[in-house]
Design a protein that fits this description.
The protein is α+β, with helices and mostly antiparallel strands. It contains three helices and nine strands; from the N terminus they run H-E-E-E-E-H-E-E-H-E-E-E. A six-stranded mixed β-sheet has the order 1-4-6-7-8-9.
Length: about 140
């Protein structure tokens, strides 16, 4: 699990560096929203458009701060699918979920996640070459 998380994180950081995309990673941080009386700790989460603003933050409080733009969850034993509802309620725009065998990407649309084949970071991070995820086409 740790190796998969590290590889995905390295991929995201390397891609952003290569493309000169500002990125701020927030790993193993508890993100709370007190009005919902809920919180979560992600394996990895990222800010891109808000990277500079979030860089100075010690804690993330979704009552005043924007949610991460991307959350990465690696769940080998139990499913991260139940977390999708929580992430959606907090406004996380995109979630990547790895189950030990394949990567699935989800984008928030109208309050629910839909499966996607390409990340909003860039269409180059997609399954079109089979390098990131295993979206299946019929």
């Amino acid at each position: 699990m740790k190796k998969i998380k590290s590889l995905l994180g390295a991929l995201i950081i390397a891609y952003c560096e290569e493309r000169e995309i500002d990125v701020e990673t927030v790993a193993s941080t508890t993100i709370r929203r007190t009005d919902l009386e809920r919180g979560f700790e992600t394996d990895e989460s990222y800010y891109f458009e808000l990277a500079e603003q979030m860089r100075a933050k010690e804690d993330i409080n979704l009552n005043i701060d924007a949610p991460p733009e991307l959350v990465v969850e690696v769940e080998i034993i139990r499913s991260a699918i139940a977390k999708l509802e929580l992430f959606a309620s907090m406004g996380v725009l995109e979630v990547w979920r790895h189950d030990g065998a394949s990567l699935q990407m989800f984008r928030l649309k109208h309050g629910e996640y839909e499966s996607i084949c390409a990340s909003r970071i860039s269409s180059r991070l997609s399954n079109r070459t089979g390098s990131i995820t295993s979206c299946r086409t019929t």
